[in-house]
C-alpha cells in the first residue's frame, strides 16, 4: 500500500525529488549555483540506503574535496537517522583511486603498501633522471617536466600515449624516454605520484576485465558532484566503471560481510516491512552490515535475515544502463587551467543514452540581488548552455551587492575588518563570513589585520600566508641574519637553493657545532677554515657564511625591506623560483614580493620577525568561531551568509596570466570564477577594489575590474567615496584626502560611467571595454600567480 514519503524527501521541490527518486538509469542534473545539486546527491544516497537498494559499500560517490566528503557523510547520517560509518567509496577521485589501487597494486607492478610521492620527491627523482641522461637540468628543469607529466596524467596518458609533439617538446626529444624511465623508477621504488592514483586504476581496469566487471557490478550506484570540473582521466575512470552493467550473477569484489545483492528492495516487494521507527536500511540483513551502519537506537526488532535474491535489483542484462548520477554547472567550471574539461558534462547524454536530464531552476541560497548580480555577470560569457535561475521575490530589506573602493590593500583589509566587526555587532557569527581571494598573496594583508584586531580567522584549503613554504624559507634567511644562533632556520636554508651542501656536509657542521658548543653558523665559519670538508662544499659553505656576515653588517644601516630583497636575490632564492616552470612558481614569487612589501610596515626586520611569530601563534582550531579566508577556487560548493570579494582589479581579477595565456577562454574562466564567488553569498556580498597596489616596490594605480562594469546597477550599491565611507565610522578627515586621491587615480571610463549613472544597463560596457587597451599593472608572466595549489582541492 501507499506509504507517506520518508521525511528526508520532504521539502524537496518536484524536480529535486525526481532527481532523487529516479535511482535507475543515468541521470544528469545540470543546474545553476545554489539550486540544491549537492543536496540532491546527498538525499539520493540517503534514499538509496534507506530503500535498501544497495549496501553503503555499493555506492560510489565522488566529491571535489575531502571536506565535502566528510560533510556529505554527516548529512546522510542525519537524513537517515543513524551515523553512516561505512561509505568506503565516498571521497575525492584521489582518495577513491588510492583505495582501489591498494587493493590491486600488484596488477600494475606495485605492492599494496606503495608510497605516494609529494612534489618535492617527484622533482628530485626527475632531476636525477634528467642528469642521468646527460642533460643539463638547468636547461631542462625537473619542475617543468613534472608539470608536463601532470598534464599528461590528467589526460590519462602513459609514456606510450603521449603525442610525438609533446614528447619532442622536452629534453631534445627525450620526453617519452624520460617519462618511461620515471615510471620504471617509481615501480622500483614501490611508489606512485598523484597522477598515478587515477592512471593506474584506469590501466588496471582496462587490462583486467574480470576486475573491471567486479567493480561494475559492485558499484550499483555512482554519484558525482561538480561534474563540470572532471578532467579526462577522471572521466575515463568513471566511464569505465559506469559504461554498462554487467550480468549480476557474478560474485563481486567483496567487502567484509557484504552480500552480492542489495538488501532490501526485494524484501519490500516480498512484503517484509521495516520498522517505521527505524528509517534506515531496515533491519533485514543488518547484522552482517553492523560494521557499516549504526542505526538509530530505535531499531529494535530483528526480522529474519534475507536470502540474497537470484538477481541484483537494478542489474538487468548485460548492457543495461548504469545508475550514474552526475550533477554540475557549466558556469562553474573553473579548473580548465588544470586539465578539467567542461565538455564532459556536455556529452553526458551521448555517453549515457537515455539519460534523464533534470534541471533545477530555483536558487535556495542567495537573495534576489545576489543572484541577479551573478546571473547578469555570467551572461557576458559566450558558449554557455544557458540556464534559468530564480529565487524568492526580492525582499525590500535585502541588501544589494555592495561595491567598495579603497586606496590600497592595507585600507581594504582595514575596511573589511571593520565591516566584519559591524556584522558581528549585528549578531552574525564569524563562521558565517568568508573572504574569497583571487590569489593567495592577497591573504597576507587580511591575516595581519585580523591578528591586530584579535579577530579569529582560518585559512581553508591551504597553509596560512606565513606558513607557506617559500615564505618560511625566506623568513629562515631573515632569522639567521637577525638571530645568528637560530640553527633551525640555518638548517632550513643551508642548501636551499641547492648549493651542493648535502646531508653529509650539514651533518659535519652540525656535529662540529655540538662539539664546540656554538651555533651552526659560527661552526660553519670555523669549519671552512679547516681541511675537514671537501673543497667543493667547503667553497659553497664559505660563500654562504660570508653572505650572512655581509647581510648582518647591512642590518643596521640599510632599509630593512631593501635588505630583505637583497638577501633573497644574493642567496639565489628568488632565482630558484624564477627558473621554476611549475604552475605554483609564479604564485610563490608573488608571495615573496608580498612578504617584502609587508615588512615595510614595520620599524625593523627584528620587529617584523616578532610580529610574524605572533601571527603564527594565533589559534587555529576547528571549533572556534572564525572568519574563513580562502581562494575562490577553494570556495566551490560552499556557502556563507556574508562574503567578501576583495581585489577586483584588472590584472588581478581577471588575472593577467589567464588573459595572456587563455585569451578569450581564459577571460571566460575568470568570469566563471567571479560567478562562483558571488554565488557563495546567501545574503551579504561585499566587493572591494583598490586604486593602488604596490608592485615590485612601486605604487601603481590600478584599473577596477571589468567585472564591476558587468554587474547590473539595479542589484548593486556602489559606495561612493568619500561620502559613503562615513557609514563605516572610524575614518577621520584624512580619509577624505585619500578619497580625493582615489578619485584622481581612477582611470576606468567604464567604471566612472557605472558610478555616474546607475540606472544605465551596464552590460553594454563590455562592448566598449573590449576595445580599450588595458594597462598592465605588473602581474606579468614571471609573477602572475594562481592561488589554488593542488593540495587545496583534492
Ligand atoms: P553549488 O552549485 O554552489 O554547488 P548546489 O546546487 O550544490 O550549489 P546546494 O549547496 O545543494 O546547491 O544547496 C544550496 C542551499 O540551498 C543549501 O543551503 C541547501 O540546503 C538549500 N536547499 C536546497 N534545496 C532546498 C529546498 N528544496 N528547500 C530548502 N532549501 C534548499
Ligand atoms: Mg554543490
From TrEMBL:
It comes from Roseitalea porphyridii. Belongs to the helicase family. UvrD subfamily. Residues 302-311 have a biased composition (Pro residues). This is DNA 3'-5' helicase. The lineage of its organism: Bacteria, Pseudomonadati, Pseudomonadota, Alphaproteobacteria, Hyphomicrobiales. Its EC number is 5.6.2.4. One of its GO terms (cellular component) is cytosol. Keywords: ATP-binding, DNA-binding, Helicase, Hydrolase, Isomerase, Nucleotide-binding. Coiled coil: none annotated.
